[in-house]
Specification:
This protein has a two-stranded antiparallel ribbon. It is built from three helices and two strands. It is elongated and about 55 Å long. Helices cover 48% and strands 4% of the residues. It has two domains: 1-49, no CATH class; 50-89, Irregular (30s Ribosomal Protein S14, Chain N). It has 89 residues and is mainly alpha-helical.
Length: 89
């Protein structure tokens, strides 16, 4: 489980990214890099980190499910994830 402060910081970044997305696109289209540099640093989408929806874990993130590999495995074994089954051959 990630620290709640780290998860909250990432959520704050997501809000800033959404807030400044339109303005950032306009400045980029104009080529106004001075204006871009005056925007908040955390409004850059590069600074957003994909995290597990359940635990907040950043590593081993599976984009299709929005979960870390550990959470994915637990939920898949319990049969909670639709369409996912353990492979055998």
């Amino acid at each position: 489980m990630a620290k709640t402060s780290v998860v909250a910081r990432n959520e704050k970044r997501a809000k800033l990214i959404a807030k400044y997305a339109k303005k950032r696109a306009e400045l980029k289209a104009k080529g106004d890099y001075v204006g871009l540099s005056k925007l908040p640093r955390n409004s850059n989408p590069i600074r957003y980190k994909n995290r597990c929806a359940l635990t907040g874990r950043a590593h081993g993130y599976m984009r299709d499910f929005g979960l870390s590999r550990i959470s994915f495995r637990e939920l898949a074994n319990d049969g909670v994830l639709p369409g996912v089954r353990k492979s055998s051959w």
